[in-house]
Amino acid sequence: MNHPLTELNRRLGGIAYGGDYNPEQWPRETWHEDVRLMREAGVNLVTVGVFSWSRLQPRPGTYDWSLLDEVLGLLHENGIAVDLATATAAPPPWFTRRHPDARPVTASGTRLSHGSRQVFCPSHPAYAAAADALVAQLAARYGDHPALVMWHVHNEWGNHNALCYCDVSASAFRTWLRERYRELDTLNEAWGTDFWGQRYSDWEEIDPPRETTALRNPGQELDYHRFSSDALLDRHRAEAALLRRFAPGTPLTTNHLGTLEKKVDAYAFAPECDLISVDHYLPAADPDGHIDLALNADMTRGMAAGRPWLLMEHSTSAVNWQPVNVAKRPGEMRRNSMAHLARGADGIMFFQWRQSRAGAEKWHSAMLPHGGTDTRIWREVRALGADLASLADVVGTRVRADVALLFDWNNWWALELQARPSARTRYLDLVREWYEALWALNITCDVIPPGQDLTPYKAVLAPNLYLLADEHADALTRYVRQGGHLAVGCFSGVVDARDQVRPGGYPGALREVLGLRVDEYLPLRTEDTIRLSDGSVAVQWAERVEPRGCTATVRFADDAGGGPARGGPAVTRHAYGAGTGWYVATRASGPTLREVVRQVAETAGLRSVADVPEGVEAVRRTGPGGSFLFLINHTDGDVDVPVGGLGLLDTVSDGSHTKIPAGGVAVLREERPPRQA
Ligand code: GLA
What we know:
The protein is an alpha/beta fold.
């Protein structure tokens, strides 16, 4: 049987294309124009009802299906399929009025007001009851609707309300803790409550880590992150169970936030979905936002276990929630879409179809802008629809990666708790630096959690593993011993799953594999830089490394410029078992990390996807349908790439060379793809 997404693509006749459709914002006449223009643009799938709860249930106990009945019918008549949302991300005002204590409370005790979305406490039973009732009704009414091809559970779980500190949450937290620890003494031990006299003698004494006088207990805070993510996961499971019960046979998804959201462990939600979808928005302040995009896409593929996935939302141009909302340049939206497609997406969707004229997101771009069809954005949206239609053969092909990059929400939470050696050590920065080295070398990686099977990968990169659970440490050790190649970034292997420091010297769990011991961590002042023996400059962090079998391949400079660890190892390499372990004991710059990745690649026998100039992104998808090489030119100049094939899109290829205009995208259908190492 086909994967549910591939089956969906089959029903759609190709790559999914469309966006969030919010018809309730517009008069009925507009709906007819909407579907006409959707067809003109090649839209074949829209997400309906994401924020429609107050229309679907205008009063407690009263449902009104007229809007959905009509809109779903109209879409179906026009051959546009529907991803129907459960609408639970925006409880109506009547709900809040009835249940004022279901509003979320901040760590400082402020109860939030209605007037936005996701105004609910994830653990509140009144919310659960109201949401479940709505989902059951929706599922029963539309489960057999011919337009329905997919269920869209909630919307971006935890985007605005993941951490709630109300009394209901407190009580749910205690229940969660009892299940996790069973004995209060085990919890006391895990949280180190003998420090600062915090020992608990009754479960009822435990509260969420609310705002307090000084530093909070880190174990308590780490567990609060876990609990809060799990509370939302429980809600997801409840909605999914209702959909499966009342409307079996239609695949369900939820739009994950990927690295956009620290508070929700997206990997934990993935197995609870029939197909994986994600949202991604470019950070406008980042001139290389397309690298952030690639990282998220590779993570989404990791969640999808290598299978195709769906880009549920991105933007045609500017968003409206960053300090300065930079508009995309002509061609950028196409490059973004093609980069997602290249990395395994079999659907390209947007927030939203028609740009709002009222409400909080009227300055967010859409497929159909305020200016209508005589606009650059609309022309690009239409052209993209045609491009995607011409790439239908790509559907179902896979991206193969021989490298895994480890990403872990538990680690993200732990690393950024209070009172660490340096508050400047931010997880996403570390991940991004390492990912960027892979991106620059066009080595495709899967971004996966450390608990996943590593044996399919020739090499594993771990930008940071500050928190490393025992079983994950064992798996990494075994991986290297059996011939795997592992490169690890600074401040890793330090604490166990409880956030307790591993004794005997850093990097605790990784000393043996890396063949070294770290005597002391030496964070740097903001303004300080240190020189390395490879001529590069590092920042923020140094370590006094004592080799125990490893070789230093780069050292901190031997003079005062080498900083507090002057003369010591900065990058090391260690033969261990049948494999190799590298360690980078500082915040190295791009060239140093690229060299580490190059060495890993050489040792592990990894190759770049294609030999292309800097700034050109190369990714390959292969499958029974063929082999497709995507080449995305992020530079301002035309490039000539020494690879050939049958050119799709606007690609000009003579069989051995391909020209890609500045900012352009080439897709080559290859006769015989070069063996990817
Ligand atoms: C999120 C939400 C959408 C919309 C966009 C704006 O992704 O899911 O409803 O608010 O952000 O960028």
